């Protein structure tokens, strides 16, 4: 990629209108920044849940199962307001048949980024959206991303910047991670962690 991806202004405007106000069952810095960039009125409630995959086997099933666990935890807390929109999500990278979440440490992040070089990966985000008076909507959004063929020095430079911490796959497109990428297919916001196009579509279809 020759330049940093930017948020589509029309999509951001729709998100600000349809998603506001909303409770985000997540403390993810990338998701919080994305909602801020859209102008969405939101409150963030991090969920400390065990990201158990249960009996789920496919990438979409796995992330939806984990997102449901986060929503269940939030919905049973004192912070949950059934009169407000609420959103829980989980994002993972599907790479050569393996599901990858957040790197455990710097060495793990370096292994991930090195393995990604010159390769395609699938980014899958599972979501559970609570719509007041209409129940829960659950789904999974898929995007594809091709990494550049990076030199060891480029990998080291990115890892040393610390952006790998706390994010699936160990890179952040909103910061300098876009420099590692050759091409994106599908939703950019989904890769960041919130599939805005799908959520906007759901809410447009649920307007009275």
UniProtKB/TrEMBL annotation:
Location relative to the cell: Cytoplasm
Active site as annotated: 90
Keyword Hydrolase: yes
Molecular-function GO terms, alphabetical: nucleoside triphosphate diphosphatase activity
Catalytic activity field: a ribonucleoside 5'-triphosphate + H2O = a ribonucleoside 5'-phosphate + diphosphate + H(+); a 2'-deoxyribonucleoside 5'-triphosphate + H2O = a 2'-deoxyribonucleoside 5'-phosphate + diphosphate + H(+)
UniProt KW keywords: Cytoplasm, Hydrolase, Nucleotide metabolism
One GO CC term, this protein: cytoplasm
Cofactor section: a divalent metal cation
InterPro entries found in the cross-reference section: ITPase-like_fam, Maf-like
Principal cellular location given in the protein's record: cytoplasm
GO biological process, one term: nucleotide metabolic process
E.C. no: 3.6.1.9
Protein family per UniProt: Belongs to the Maf family.
Function as written in the Swiss-Prot or TrEMBL entry: Nucleoside triphosphate pyrophosphatase. May have a dual role in cell division arrest and in preventing the incorporation of modified nucleotides into cellular nucleic acids.
PANTHER family given in the database record: BIFUNCTIONAL DTTP/UTP PYROPHOSPHATASE/METHYLTRANSFERASE PROTEIN-RELATED, BIFUNCTIONAL DTTP_UTP PYROPHOSPHATASE_METHYLTRANSFERASE PROTEIN-RELATED
Name this protein carries in UniProt: Nucleoside triphosphate pyrophosphatase
Species of the source: Candidatus Aphodenecus pullistercoris
Gene for this chain: maf
